[in-house]
């Protein structure tokens, strides 16, 4: 607990001023070095470049893209396929209409 005047605030931060671990050290907006604990691999805290910024390789990007697809109804492939099918259906409808008209003028159907 921290006492501020006659008010006690929250729990004490685990990485207080006596914490012996590596600090981030990035320059903050106030100009002082960042005091947050650093990420082991990157040497900076999560606010200063220590957090993941996503996959970099094409392989990793493909994995993420695949995991983000729910049903694939709106993927480029599926949309193009449906458009093609709609065009075929329209063409068939027009041909059927032409045949109907010809039969109508020939007097075969009403
Ligand atoms: Zn930092």
Structural class: mainly alpha
Cα(first) to Cα(last) distance is 93 Å
Largest sheet at a glance? 2 strands, antiparallel
Strand content: 5-15%
The helix fraction, in percent, is: 25-40%
Q: List the uncertain runs.
A: none
Mean pLDDT: 90
Rg on CA atoms, Å: 33 Å
Number of strands: 2
Q: Are any ligands bound, and if so which? A: zinc ion
Question: What's the total helix number?
Answer: 2
Helix and strand element order: EEHH
Question: How would you write the strand order of the largest sheet?
Answer: 1-2
Overall morphology = rod-shaped
List strands and helices in order, with pairings:
Blueprint: E1 2-4, E2 7-9, H1 58-68, H2 76-106
Please give a quick description of this structure.
This protein has 110 residues and is mainly alpha-helical. It has helices at 58-68, 76-106, and strands spanning 2-4, 7-9. The protein is built from two helices and two strands; from the N terminus they run ββαα.
Keywords for this entry:
110 residues, rod-shaped, binds zinc ion, 2 helices, 2 strands, mainly alpha, two-stranded antiparallel sheet
Describe this protein's structure.
The chain is mainly alpha-helical and 110 residues long. It is 38% helix and 5% strand. It has a two-stranded antiparallel sheet with strand order 1-2. A hairpin with a 2-residue loop joins strand 1 and strand 2. The model has no long low-confidence stretch (mean pLDDT 90). The structure holds zinc ion. Zinc ion binds at residues 24, 26, 34, 36, 44-45, 47-48.
């Amino acid at each position: 607990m921290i006492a501020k005047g006659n008010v006690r605030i929250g729990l004490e931060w685990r990485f207080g001023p006596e914490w012996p671990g590596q600090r981030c050290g990035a320059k903050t907006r106030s100009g002082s070095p960042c005091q947050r604990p650093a990420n082991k691999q990157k040497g900076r805290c999560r606010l200063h470049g220590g957090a993941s910024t996503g996959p970099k390789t094409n392989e990793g990007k493909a994995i993420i893209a695949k995991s983000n697809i729910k049903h694939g109804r709106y993927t480029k492939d599926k949309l193009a396929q449906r458009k093609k099918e709609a065009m075929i259906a329209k063409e068939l409808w027009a041909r059927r209409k032409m045949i109907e008209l010809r039969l109508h003028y020939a007097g075969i159907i009403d």
